[in-house]
């Protein structure tokens, strides 16, 4: 296992909030063969990861791109705090301008006002729920986590 995957697993074992996008980012970094050379990862790699997932149809909207970038930022806050790597956001004067640059580069659109969720959003939710159920052993959960497990189960059934 490479360094970035180890750090990702360590991070996600403490906070699963950004599991989907952190996992996507690390997969992209693995794909460009920088996962064992984390000091070579730049914010340009983050921009390219958005482009990669945009071409795959996984990042279509501004909101999804912002979730991706915010997730990577939270991941970097963790690994910088641990002293594992330098912050790729250090020389970013304006985070909003950085996101605006990405929006313009990939011609991302805002979410349209609709009475229903986009199919890619539902698919992402279902994938995250399925991932959660695959890696979670109900018998090992504390009472609070068991309540969350049942809420996720009801949500999964409702969406189907």
Attribute tags:
single chain, 160 residues, mainly alpha, 7 helices
What does this structure look like?
- By secondary structure, the chain is an all-alpha fold.
- Helices cover 65% and strands 0% of the residues.
- It is built from seven helices and no strands.
- The chain has helices at residues 3-14, 19-31, 43-55, 62-81, 95-106, 119-135, 143-159.
- α6 (119-135) runs antiparallel to α7 (143-159).
How far apart are the termini? 35 Å
Mean pLDDT: 91
Backbone CA Rg: 17 Å
Order of helices and strands: HHHHHHH
Helical coverage, percent range: 55-70%
Can you tell me the residue ranges where pLDDT is under 50 for at least 5 consecutive residues?
none
| Beta strand count | 0
Principal-axes shape call? globular
Domain count: 2
Number of helices: 7
Roughly what fraction of the amino acids lie in strands? under 5%
Structural class: mainly alpha
The main pleated sheet reads as:
none
Short note summarizing the structure:
It is built from seven helices and no strands.
